[in-house]
Amino acid sequence: MAFLNFIHWNIDPEIFSLGPLSIRWYGLLFALGFFIGQYIMTKIYKNEGRKPEDVDTLTIYVVIGTVVGARLGHCLFYQPEYYLADPIRILKVWEGGLASHGGAIGILLALYYYTKNRAGQSYLWVVDRLVIPVALAGSFIRLGNLMNSEIYGHETNLPWGFIFERNGETLPMHPTQIYESLAYLSIFFILKTMYNKTQGQTPHGKLLGWFLILVFGFRFAIEFLKNDQVAFEAGMLLNMGQILSIPAVLGGIFLVYRASKKGLVQEEELVK
Predict the structure, then answer these.
(1) In the predicted model, is pLDDT for residue 267 greater than 50?
(2) Is 142 annotated as a binding residue?
(3) What is the distance between the alpha carbons of residues 97 and 90, in angstroms, rounded to a whole number?
(4) Roughly how many angstroms between the first and final C-alpha of the chain, as a whole number?
(5) Quick check: is 174 in a domain?
(6) Which residues in the chain belong to E strands, given as ranges?
(7) For residues 158 and 14, what is the distance between their CA atoms, to the nearest angstrom?
(8) Which of 137, 160, 209, 244 has the lowest tally of Cβ within 10 angstroms?
(9) How far is it, in rounded angstroms, from Cα 91 to Cα 70?
């Protein structure tokens, strides 16, 4: 079989280096997602009469929650024996290993601490707005995975199959990074449209609920096309990513149901 019609992918993950400093596509796209997300949240805060300078603090909480949560999620969900045998390895983030489920948990926990003692910024009020740029950031991060030639799918005969030559692949694979990136970009537009349609007056938890349903529902489905990330997943009916996605989707369904019962949130509830 000839593979001339497929996409031969051999991009260098490193853009350039200056001495010990290395600038990589993944890091650039990761940072770009947060930079644009901060811009979106600043506009939301201004439009709703909140202090835009609070977004700087919010961004710090989100970045720390994302990195710490994603790192611990990978270490504890996917390779606990390896990392718990020598916990110092957990700190070696530069060696790779971040899990989106852990990142989501980290963000939710970080926001709990951010919203304490902040009048007019209840937990669900903040999270409902934050999930909009988070979906967009997820799209950028998956493009970063593509530039790293990682987290791709099984062999495919589809014309857009990628041959990841940097990893020694000789057969075309599903570019699941692109599938996920496009899905998260679509979810960003869906959530932004829902927010704009009600001018921000959405029932508490509604946007978070739809975020969980759409993001982790798609994650559950796309895992059927992906290669196993760790050896213990071989032979499992559902892999770890799918197992972790189930409670997230169920939680999203609960939040949407709860929001539908409450109806539109009144302004005085937002500023209590």
Answers:
(1) no
(2) yes
(3) 9
(4) 66
(5) yes
(6) 7-9, 14-18, 21-24, 162-164
(7) 28
(8) 160
(9) 12
